[in-house]
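By way of example, we now present a protein record of this kind:
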Amino acid sequence: MSMTETRDGEDETRIAHLSGWFRRRPTSMEYWELLVTEERLVWCFVGESFKSMLLRADTGERGRGEIEDATPDRALSLDERNFAVPLDSLESVRLRDGTLFRRAKLVVTWKENDEADSYELYATKTADSQVDDVEALADDPRLSHVDVGVETTDGLF
């Protein structure tokens, strides 16, 4: 199955919902939600904010609401930029927890057609800490082949 195919009608159990993330692009910030099921990681594009002051910012709040209760297949169909990575293709999920002066960072790496790919995401200002969610992924036997880790800091930086 390719990363863009959906499987309508099949039930999947959601393991985690990693919410409130953005990806820095040269001219914009893309807002993403991640749904982890027992079979795949569904990447859900929920908005984009451009660096130009002339363009209205869409920080993804409406899109996040749609993803919250959606099935993985429904979430995948909400935007053409959405895609899914089979859990078998995941290589690492690394979270660096945020501090008072530094945003949390999530780096997800996977392999597609023998080529590595990764996204580096940063927590939005309104995002809750997701240390517990990522630590739960590390304990999940379905992700035993994935390098899952959390880095926390007690200081301000």
Helices lie at 61-68, 72-77, 131-139. The beta strands are 14-24, 28-37, 40-50, 83-86, 90-96, 105-112, 115-123, 147-151. The chain has one domain: 14-147. Residues 131-139 form the longest helix (9 residues).
